[in-house]
Amino acid sequence: MPLRFLFPKRLLSFSRTMASARQQPPWIAPAPSSRQDLPDLKIFNSLTRKKNKFIPLDPSGVNVSWYSCGPTVYDDAHLGHARNYVSTDILQRILRDYFNFKFNFVMNITDVDDKVRLN
């Protein structure tokens, strides 16, 4: 079914205009680290849509800070919550135990319990 039957014409033109107007800032690769044994590790960069070499921002190349969006807990727990915890834990263990990085790992948990009224 064509989109014109699902959405009003005004909405389609607005969403196309907004999507084409947004632009991400250019990505600048970090400076190479002084660590000589830095592994040749590549990670998918969602901004450039390419695999880029993983270079820690720490000049020594040892410390890695990692922020991860956690679950939004507004209903019962489900498998999607567990997937987030398990996948980040596995990646962190590989990077810590195999590649010898030290981690500062932070994950947020969003609690949606706001009582906002729209008048």
Describe this structure in words.
The protein is α+β, with helices and mostly antiparallel strands. 31% of the residues lie in helices and 17% in strands. The chain contains three helices and four strands; from the N terminus they run ααβββαβ. The protein has a two-stranded antiparallel sheet with strand order 1-2. Strand 1 (42-45) and strand 2 form a beta hairpin. The two termini are 36 Å apart. The relative contact order is 0.13.
Quick overview of this protein structure:
This protein has 119 residues and is an alpha+beta fold.
Keywords:
119 residues; alpha+beta; two-stranded parallel sheet; 4 strands; 17% strand
Order of helices and strands: HHEEEHE
Percent range of helical residues: 25-40%
* Number of helices, counting only DSSP H or I runs of 4 residues or more: 3
Mean pLDDT: 77
- Rg over CA atoms, rounded to whole Å, is 21 Å
Shape label? globular
Largest sheet: 2 strands, antiparallel
Q: Biggest sheet, strands in spatial order?
A: 1-2
User: How many beta strands in the DSSP annotation?
Assistant: 4
Write the layout of secondary structure elements.
Elements: H1 3-6, H2 9-21, E1 42-45, E2 50-53, E3 63-68, H3 79-98, E4 102-107
Parallel strand pairs: 3-4
Antiparallel strand pairs: 1-2
